[in-house]
Batch of 2 targets.
Target 1
Amino acid sequence: MGEIPNDIRAVLEALARKEISVEDAEKLIIAIKQEKVQNKGKKSSEVSGGKSLIGKELVIEENQEYNGDIQAVNSKIIVKGKVKGDLELVFCELYFSGELDGDIEAVGCKLVWNGGTINGDIQMVGCNYSGKKPVVKGSVNEINNFFINGILGTVKFFVKPIISGIKIEE
């Protein structure tokens, strides 16, 4: 028998520590297996078409271009270059000064703008933002009220410590 891959091992360890439910572990393992099947046969220079992050940092430098969607939970995302895809963020920090050909969906995030261009829509729920806003070619929708902030604050308080213990390696 072979060795268990690090990403699967991390899910199983989180399950053993009762940080995630059996159903969540099953979903994560299925997603990991599907990604490996999709990437099978691709050369290492090809873009995978998407990235899912939990508790990690992703930096896209000024001279870089990333093709694919980015889904992140409890992560730090820095976009100085170009992203051709959507950003789906939950409890993340986003530092944005680049270009995005897609939409941003953010829940409970800290968004720090430093200009840039978004060729799509922005949907923000319970987010804090600061800095020089980017040029947005689509619509900007924001839900930020006492009720939503209270719910998200409670969720962050209970869920974020659990999520921070989960690390998925590629």
Note: DSSP finds three helices and 15 strands in the chain.
Target 2
Amino acid sequence: MKKLAVVISATLLLTSTASLAEVYVGAKAGKSWLNEACLSSINCDDEDKTIGAFLGYEMWDILSIEAGYDYLGKFTASGLNDDKVTAITLAPKVNLPITDTVSLYGKFGGAFVEYGNQEDYSYLGAAGLEFMSNDNISVRLEYQYISDINNEIVRASGNSATLGIVYKFGNNEKATQPVVLIEERPQPKPVIKAEIVEKEVVKPIITTETFKTKKLNSNSFESNSTALTEESKQNLTNLVDILSAYPKANVEITGYTDSTGSASYNQIVSEERALSVANELVAKGIDVSRILIEGEGENNPIASNKTKEGRQQNRRVEITIPEFDYQAQK
């Protein structure tokens, strides 16, 4: 137990200066079994149930570090007589997003194993799939392998297949920047003096006006997400009002990502973010022929991709209403 305290203390030291939003905890349960543990044992039981718990810290979107405690079960085998096997683990976790809600991950690190009345240090490897339920909760399917669990008789290895649940602290506090229309001061309209003529009807005066280009602030997205928040949908109302009032107005929507992931993957995500805004405009009655969308991937960042805050700012959509002329009646 002293070694467990050392591992947990080291992990807490790594997270002590970090935001609570990057810390997560989890638990898992499933089946465990040993390989090459029954070479010299007549009565052998090398399968059991396993449970475990872990604490992690997300350093970047693709890299975390985890410490855990696994109870692998009780076994009867060479060097074991209905004895328990436990492991204290420490390993980095590398995440590879597959979709917005599913990630493939792998771990490779070390483990301190108690095998009956024996103790040993071993290598640990694991692979699995993680499914995001919401911003705070995810579910894992994982296979874990612990190599060369030594005792005085055999060199065995431990295996486990588990289903786990993870809780991430603070993610529900992440605020998405709303789309805000940048107001420009209108150009003064020319003053037209009408000459009053007795018994003469004054016809309305038609003038040509120019609508100046308008740009909207960017809308931030979660990592690997293309979904608009309800607040962002509401903030598109000003844009819809302008497009409805000026039938000649068109809109250009450009999506962007941060530098996480491959360039080809980021290009697809940026296009889908622009398409999310376009679909919302169409749902509010804007004709699709007036909308132009494009994706720029990770190009043209507005902040540094080396920080979490900078990457969040770069996950955005920029909206522009180009300049156009229209007829106005005075």
Note: The domain at 22-169 is CATH 2.40.160.20 (Porin).
